[in-house]
Design goal:
Layout lengths: L3 E2 L1 H9 L1 H9 L8 H16 L9 H18 L12 H21 L9 E10 L2 E12 L5 E7 L9 H19 L5 E6 L4 E5 L3 H24 L33 H5 L2 H4 L9 H10 L12 E4 L1
Parallel strand pairs: 1-3, 4-5
Antiparallel strand pairs: 2-3, 3-4, 5-6, 6-7
Helix pairs in contact: 1-2, 3-4, 3-5, 4-5, 6-7
The structure holds iron/sulfur cluster (SF4).
The site of iron/sulfur cluster (SF4) has 14 residues, from helix 2.
């Protein structure tokens, strides 16, 4: 099997090799959280809204899509019903109201009546020197002259300048894949933060994307080495507060499960290392951005990264 890497698993390993192990090797379950489910619901509504004619893409229309999309999600994953007491109309309404607040914030940032996305929830994949890179792009806008804008929705808050690079890694990863697929560097990468009502934009060039390519290749070498050595060390950081496996983490007094005999195979299994989710962000990342938003905003950001607040 050809090895594969998704931006989510790449980000896991960069954040903490033990987190990568818990997710890819041990495959520990991670119950859905309200933040994750709300993010998925909001994504679904923003995606479906573009099925409507341009003039009909209103706040009210988006609100009307919420119950149907929620029902579809629960049908597909019945365990989600544990997150919301649907027998209590007030709680159900409150759940939809929370999602609607995020959607309404989106309307302050973008005008869907003036957008015609070329693609929504676009699966992208390319192979670079024997490593498959894959992921889902929330939205791809293509201008008549071929310029591409890659858009990703985040239901958390925008990161501080200190963490913008981390937030943009995923977008540059997609830009690299699109560049390899179409022979053209996307003109703009745009992260839409619905939690704080901010846009983070970046205009990549070939130099950037070559650097991302080197980084991804080096990351895969590091993953292979960790798998061969069975050495997935914890890397504690403030993001540990959002780690669903903290109680098992030796850095916090826990005991990790014994590493499986076939850990090497599991760690490099492309179905896990290249796993992609149609979800806004794992719960840890969503919460992390909330925390990061309170970090030191005086830190210098990338010179071509722009935040519209
Ligand atoms: S708690 Fe922190 S150090 Fe431990 S596995 Fe999770 S992210 Fe890694």
């Amino acid at each position: 099997m050809v090895p594969a890497l998704s931006p989510s698993r790449a980000a896991d390993f960069m954040q903490c090799p033990l987190l990568y192990r818990f997710r890819v090797v041990d495959r520990l379950p991670e119950p859905a959280t309200p933040a994750m489910a709300r993010g998925t619901l909001v994504h679904a509504v923003l995606e479906r809204l573009f099925d409507l004619p341009a003039g009909g893409r209103t706040r009210d229309a988006a609100g009307e899509l919420l119950p149907g999309q929620w029902t579809r999600m629960v049908d597909e994953r019945p365990e989600l019903s544990d997150l919301v007491d649907e027998a209590d109309p007030a709680r159900l309404q409150s759940w939809f109201d929370d999602a609607l607040r995020l959607i309404e914030r989106w309307f302050t940032l973008e005008d869907p009546t003036r957008l015609e996305p070329a693609e929504r929830e676009l699966y992208v994949e390319t192979e670079i020197d024997g490593l498959i890179l894959r992921g889902y792009v929330d939205r791809l806008d293509v201008a008549p002259d071929g310029r591409m804008r890659v858009v990703d929705y985040k239901t958390g808050r925008a990161p501080s300048h200190l963490f913008e690079g981390k937030a943009l890694f995923q977008m540059k990863f997609y830009a690299l894949v699109l560049w390899r697929l179409h022979g053209r560097v996307p003109t703009r990468l745009q992260l839409v933060y619905l939690g704080s009502g901010e846009l983070l934009t970046y205009e990549p060039d070939e130099h950037d994307l070559r650097a991302v390519e080197r980084k991804v290749k080096a990351l895969w070498v590091a993953i292979e080495r960790a798998a061969t050595d069975g050495d997935f060390r914890p890397r504690p950081s403030r993001l540990c507060d959002w780690c669903g496996h903290k109680q098992l983490c030796p850095a916090f007094g826990g005991v990790a499960p014994p590493i499986p005999d076939d850990a090497v195979v599991l760690a490099l299994d492309p179905r896990a290392s290249g796993a992609v989710e149609l979800v806004t962000a794992p719960p840890m990342a969503a919460g992390a951005t909330d925390a990061e938003a309170t970090a030191d905003r005086r830190a210098p950001g990338s010179p071509r990264a722009g935040v519209v607040r």
